[in-house]
Amino acid sequence: MPSVHQQTTNDDKTAARLRVEEYAVEEFSTELLRPLGVNYRKFCAMEETYQPAKIRAVLV
């Protein structure tokens, strides 16, 4: 069972994903801008999993 902190973190991540999706739909809804919306979503997803090299070295 996840701890309260883990559940809060998961809830925060879910809320952030929903905000990203909502923003992308609103701002990149025209046909011409739609590819930028795809890139925006990918960038936000990559940013979520990014760990600087120094932190990664400490975790390993």
Structure in words:
- This protein is mainly alpha-helical.
- It has one domain (4-59).
- The chain is 78% helix and 0% strand.
- Helix 1 packs antiparallel against helix 2 (34-49).
Please outline what is shown here.
With 60 residues, the protein is mainly α.
Please specify the SSE layout and strand pairing:
Layout: H1 4-27, H2 34-49, H3 53-59
Helix pairs in contact: 1-2
- Put simply, the count of helices is 3
Sheet having the most strands: none
Q: Which residues form runs of ≥5 with pLDDT under 50?
A: none
**How many domain units?**
1
Termini separation: 25 Å
Keywords, separated by commas or semicolons:
78% helix; 3 helices; mainly alpha; single chain
